[in-house]
Amino acid sequence: MTGQHGKFVWYELMTTDTKAAQTFYESVVGWSGSDAGMPGIEYTLFSAGDRQVAGLMTMPEGALEMKIPPAWLGYVAVDDVDATAAKLAADGGNVHRAPDDIPGVGRFAIVTDPHGAVFALFKGTSEAPAALEQMAPGNVGWHELMAGDLETAFPFYSSLFGWTKDQAMDMGDMGTYQIFAWNGTPIGGMMTKPKEVPSPYWLYYFNVEALDAAIERAKAGGGKIVLEPMEVPGGAWIVQCIDPQGALFALVAPRR
To answer: Do you know which InterPro entries this protein is assigned to (predicted)?
Structure first.
């Protein structure tokens, strides 16, 4: 995975009912799900057309007792998992699962930034296949961090992944929304979380062709809307939702 350092390359849903979740996301996003065939573990692969985009698995035993809800996890490619995890820890982050190997797939670590937002580091054992266009249907078009503190969060990620500042939008009382870029391409935004949000988190926006139809599919499948549809700069439309098992996700589309 040369030349990928700092790029989001995989997304994983850990949930309580994988069969129900598979049915839900196949309907809402348009993915197709298939068993990964990994020995000793049930792992579902979500694909958009012929490109694998995300994975699905049952939450680890004891997670709910620890008040850890179902959630999406983003994997960021790095040149060296061990070295990046060490740098992250030295810069104030925490390594929650030490670097480990997935046989035949790659090496990973589960980490948090200094304020507690969870993500993963990853380096594959082979070159990654050609990626989908960023806004292709079924891909993840945007990555958003509700940060503990934007002023310190951005330098942390910039140092770790080489992300650069793009546009900054004044959100009034909500503060600044800082768009960030990877290799010159805007891939997400971050802002200081509202006080009523209990902890920082990453949110992932799945591309759909039309927002209203996807919202209806989400509602029909038992999902809930937590932030009503809104138009964002550039003419796209977004909505934030919770799936039937309680995981937060978002949708983005070029039209209603």
So the answer is: Anthracycline_SecMetBiosynth, Glyas_Bleomycin-R_OHBP_Dase, Glyas_Fos-R_dOase_dom, VOC_core
CATH of domain 140-253: 3.10.180.10
Neighbours of 165 (CB within 10 A): 11
Q: Count the helix, strand and coil residues of the chain and give each as a percent rounded to the nearest 5.
A: 20, 45, 35
Count Cβ atoms within 10 A of the Cβ of residue 8 and give its class: 0-12 exposed, 13-18 middle, 19 or more buried: buried
| Stated pTM of the model | 0.96
Q: In 214-226, which positions are buried (b, 16+ CB within 10 angstroms) versus exposed (e)?
A: bbebbeebebeee
**For the chain, domain boundaries:** 8-124, 140-253
Phi, psi angles (nearest 5°) of residue 92: 105, -5
- Alpha-carbon span 229 to 160, nearest angstrom: 33
Q: 220 phi and psi, to 5 degrees?
A: -65, -30
Conformation bin of residue 97: beta by default, left when phi > 0, alpha when psi is -120 to 50: beta
Is 140-253 in the same CATH topology as 8-124? yes
Burial of 19 (0-12, 13-18, 19+ CB in 10 A): exposed
Task: Say if CB 17 and CB 245 are below 8 A apart.
Answer: yes
List pLDDT tens digits, range 191-216: 999 999 999 999 999 999 999 999 99
Question: How is domain 8-124 classified at the CATH fold level?
Answer: 2,3-Dihydroxybiphenyl 1,2-Dioxygenase; domain 1 (3.10.180)
Mean pLDDT split into 10-residue runs, the chain, 256 residues: 87 97 98 91 94 94 76 97 98 96 93 97 85 92 97 98 96 94 97 94 98 98 96 93 98 96
